Amino acid sequence: MEESEKSSQSTISSFQVFSIHVCRGLALAKPENCSYLKAISRGLLGLPVGALLNALGALALGAPVGLQYFERTISWTLLMSSLTFVPTACVYGSCWTDWHRIFACTKPKGPLDFMLCLPAHGAVIGAWFGAWPMPLDWERPWQDWPICVSYGAVGGYVAGMVGSLALALMRTGGKQLKAE
Amino acid sequence: MAPLTCTKLSVITITGVIIQIIGLSLFVFGFFPVKPALPGTSGSESFYAPTCDFVGNLSDTTLPSDQLKSLYQELSGIPPSFDRLILMVIDGLPAEFVLGKNGKPPNKQFKEGMPYTQSLLASGSAIGYHAKAAPPTVTMPRLKAMVSGAIGGFLDVAFNFNTQAMMDDNLLGQFFRIGWKMVMLGDETWIKLFPRLFERHDGVSSFYVKDTVQVDQNVSRHLGDELWKDDWNLLHNFNWYYFQILHYLGLDHVGHIGGRSSVLMVPKLKEMDEVVKLIHSSINQSQGNRRGRALLVIVSDHGMTENGNHGGSTYEETDSLALFIGLRNHVFDYAPVIKQIDIAPTLALLFGVPIPKNNVGVMIREAFDSLKEDQHLRALELNAWQLLRLLHAQLSGLPCRNFPCDAFYDHQSSDSSECNHTTENMLCCLYMEAAALYTSWKSKRGFESSSNKDYRSTAAAYYKFLKSASEWLSRRTTDKPVKVLVLGLATMFISSVMLSNLMFCRLREIYHGGKQQASNLNDSMNGWSFDETFIISVVLILVTCMTSSSMVEEEHYIWYFFISTFYLLLLRKTAQSLSSVGLQSSFPMQKGKSGEGYFRICCIFLLLISGRILRGWHQGGVNWTSLPDISKWLEQAGSQYVKPLQLISAILVISIGLFALFSIESKGKYFQMVRLIFLISGLLVLLHITRYQDFTFSSTNYGATLLVQIIYAILGATTIGTVVALPWLIPLSTSKISPTDNTISPPFFPSIQEKFPLVEFRDSLYVIGWAYILCWCLLQLLLQQPINTTPILLLLLQTVASVLYFLRSGTHHKEWVEIAGFYYLGMAGHFALGNSNTLATIDVAGAFIGISNHSTFLSGILMFVITYASPMFILLSLVMCISTKSMAHLVIPEKENAGDLLMMMLGFPCLVPLVINSILLTAYTVVLLLMQNHLFVWSVFSPKYLYVCATTVCTFIGVFIVAATGSYTYFVLAKRKQKACTRVYSTCSS
């Protein structure tokens, strides 16, 4: 009972996060490149694709398989997808070079790339660290499958956001100084 | 720093390994002292003074029990005062609950919980003691200590982990020998310890800790029955003596669930009190019937911490209870402290049986109050003789060694000033003093006037000797020699520093030494890339995790997590290189490269998928073993699914191996023979699987054993034959460049090939490597449980996939990263085959396959082969892995010589496993030292340490095989090439 409540909560929260991201992606996307509508549709398309990729990664790393975990895994992957995949999908669509630059090589250019790259990496690394308490025998409710991983992901994401913000501010500050 | 040469490298490595072995053995023997135990059981000779030649009197063991009993009675001179013993074990009851602590009465609620027992204590008809238990405070070793009076070392616990029958001399065996009937109700550990002794028993499992009611009801429901049955026997004039054991587990379970202050605790105490009341009233009743007297002994095997756990050595855990009801009344102001082992000699002397041979305990003084003076002193003498025998066994330099032979000992004693020099002298002197006093007391016994004072001083002298001897003997078994431990640790530390330093030297030489070559190589060779950081942080994280007992229990999750993360990182890296060239360009050559990239991605997917299946195969560890996994699922589905799966996996393993052997293009007759023999042995293994594997565990089938022995012989002969003969027989080719080499930079290659047959070297290593792999896999197919066949196939697939991946990725990864990845893969596979860090998962049944007569050595080897299947497999496959590498581009052309090349080929494959293992070993030794007072030191950390030691041995053997094979092949080929060259020159000149 409690678990299903929790998973539904996390589904809801993942949709909230998703909508925030779409909005943010819209704010980032420059109107001259593409319309808002296009960005929204890209984001909506990116959500399941990212969820699938995240699910595969999680399964490879040892997420539990089974019908009783199915719903929880789905909600977690939606959350992860909206943290990592959707913003970039909104901004860059399916342009392979940009994806490659941001995710494979981690060589972001400019504040926009930083805003996409750092939080996504933060979320993944946070989720990785969040999985550590799971096998321990503390018998706490939050040690169940997606919960502490989600906490880790959100924590890492927030850290990435703060970091990217700071970097962006520093960069722009530096540029302004140079310009003066 | 001077560049490393091959000789220098190998000398330093070998020195490091030897130092490490010395350090490890110092530490192990310091930390886990092996206690010298006397074999055999005490017989009638224990009633005589120790003689010069300690030849046991074996004749009396064949006597029938009645005669033996009367013989003992006659010899001991102490008439047994009881003919019924009821031993009530309340698992996990701290003495504090009944007797209080430090002279204060127990907590009010606990006191009120046991009103009857408290009233007995107050009236003096029950005598209570704090019985100090020795660590490890877990049930089985404590029970052993109580009935044998001996303190076992940890290794005893470890080796007897599967609760095999107790072979040492003990009270139950002694009682059984004189014809007592035994009844056991409660914890089934007793039945495992003494499988054939009990006339009636009803064991309950201590496994379901959540059950606090049923475990005790199962004992109590027989209680009335047993007491009644006894009377029935009496009615029919059966003169049977009874030893009844009641083992109540409920209180321990209450503790495990809720700790000391659990709400269930007081009701449980009340229940126990009711049982005490019931038994005591039945004893009183039967005494009214003029039956022989009965002694009720209530003991607990260990205490518990505030949280209800036990296993460690804190006061709360070691404070166990010993309560005697039925002795002469004795009221204490506060309960004295004895040792748990003191129970054994006390009971033995009270009941007139010989004291168990390895007993370290001292008889409890108050228990003998009812005896006459001479009987009391005789009991003391018997106890002293027994301890003296044990001292002789442990202290070869005991100066009073030969005193009974001399017969002068009573004249030269009682000079107490000599009693202070050494331990030996002191113990000896104390004994002589007591013995002399006893003799003089005996001679003066007629004169009543002085004997009381003499009696007291004699008894005091005996107790003084017994106490100090017992102290010394028990300290010897638990004391850890700090100097040895520190020395061992320091030695291990030095060796791991040596090895790591060596590796970093090699790294610097290869990757930073030749700057002119670095420009040729890929960019990623110079930077400190992410996967390298990860490989190093794996070691650091692992070391940190090992300080937590839960993480030690669940170590497999760490390895699975690491290895799949490592593959995901490789995937990312492949994706990086893939699209940087793949999509933008249209050159045909680079298209080929992107094809390579896709191939690598496929390899990684294969690795990830098979890794995930392996992870799900066995739900290992301690806490989550009950969760569903594939092996349980298959076993539930029945053998009609397991068998075909097993056959398919076995056929696939054999065909992969044979295919790999066939894939080398060489037409020598010798190769054909190797292939043929492996094919035959594969078929034999299949035959064994289809025909015999169902029966091997149940019965010793002659045909099966013979077949297995034939397979062992063929595999051994083929593998050794291949290794020895192949380098001599492989044809020396005349072609310069093998077609499979496309990464070798052409300018250097011919010059090396002129001097040295590189292609032949790699070809023969390839064949030898596959021979190793195939041999090992076939062995595992034979030995492992049927359910583990598929994991072996998956492991083989993983190995092949990673070799292919690293082969195709060329210079993207540094070699040491690859080797470390292999090592981690082996550790993950170790757990995937169902192993864990508890000793319970060792497959004992498989260790007797193909052994016709019992041999501890051979079955030990087989057990090692089964348990370390995966790490050894990976190390053996390193030989094959080396052969796929082309190190020629790394040799500096000007300085190239034979040794350099060998160092290039073998350096990292040997160094990396050694370095990783030595770091883990040293770190874990530090952890064990830090944790030596931890709660779980005996249950979690020490078993893990045994595994770490075995892994070290495995690494040494594997690395030795790799190094020996490599150097042997190399030298043989070099010699042949030299000969061939001189022949060519001589034909040219002539």
Topology:
The complex is a heterodimer of chains A (180) and B (990).
Chain A (H helix, E strand, L loop, with lengths): L1 H27 L7 H25 L6 H18 L1 H7 L3 H9 L5 H21 L14 H35 L1
Chain B lengths: L5 H26 L33 H12 L7 E7 L5 H4 L8 H6 L1 H9 L2 E7 L6 H10 L5 H6 L11 H7 L3 E7 L1 H5 L6 E5 L9 H7 L2 H13 L6 E7 L1 H9 L6 H24 L5 E6 L15 H4 E7 L11 E3 L3 H8 L22 H22 L8 H4 L16 H21 L4 H31 L3 H32 L1 H4 L11 H16 L3 H5 L1 H28 L5 H30 L12 H8 L1 H24 L6 H23 L10 H28 L19 H7 L2 H26 L5 H20 L6 H18 L23 H12 L1 H16 L13 H33 L6 H53 L1
Helix pairs in contact in B: 1-20, 1-36, 16-18, 16-19, 18-19, 20-36, 22-24, 24-25, 24-33, 25-32, 25-33, 26-27, 27-28, 27-31, 27-32, 28-29, 28-31, 29-31, 29-37, 31-35, 31-37, 32-33, 32-35, 33-35, 33-36, 35-36, 35-37, 36-37
Task: State the main characteristics.
heterodimer; A: 79% helix; globular; disordered N terminus; B: mainly alpha; 37 helices; 5% strand
Describe the protein's architecture and organization.
The complex is a heterodimer of chains A (180) and B (990). Chain A is mainly α. Chain A has one domain (1-177). Chain A has helices at residues 2-28, 36-60, 67-84, 86-92, 96-104, 110-130, 145-179. In chain A, helix 3 runs parallel beside helix 7 (145-179). The longest helix of chain A is centred in the C-terminal third of the chain and has 35 residues, at 145-179. Chain A is globular and about 55 Å long. The model of chain A is unreliable at 1-8 (pLDDT under 50). Helix content of chain B is 62%, strand content 5%. Chain B has an 8-stranded mixed beta sheet with strand order 4-3-5-1-6-7-2-8, with helices on both faces. In chain B, helix 9 links the parallel strand 3 and strand 4. Classes of the chains: A mainly alpha (180), B mainly alpha (990). The interface between A and B is medium-sized, with 20 and 29 residues. Chain A: Keywords: Endoplasmic reticulum, GPI-anchor biosynthesis, Membrane, Transmembrane, Transmembrane helix.
